[in-house]
Design brief:
Helix content is 56%, strand content 0%. The chain contains 2 helices and no strands.
Length: 71
Amino acid sequence: MAITRDSDLHIRRFSRNAGLGLVLLAFVGIVFGLTIAKVERGDKMEAYDHQPRTSVLPPAPADPAKEGTAQ
């Protein structure tokens, strides 16, 4: 015995599911687009691996003791 008519609940549920599907599809599209833009740009891709990155460290200050002895 199949149900031939959709009730109001089924129609509302379908529209909510379709809306959520569109939101999820838009989110996936944004993430995909950002990924493609990052890869095509070619920047350095450094991961967080619990090591200090030398590219973000400030330059080492000059040692004043060594400068005085070189004369």
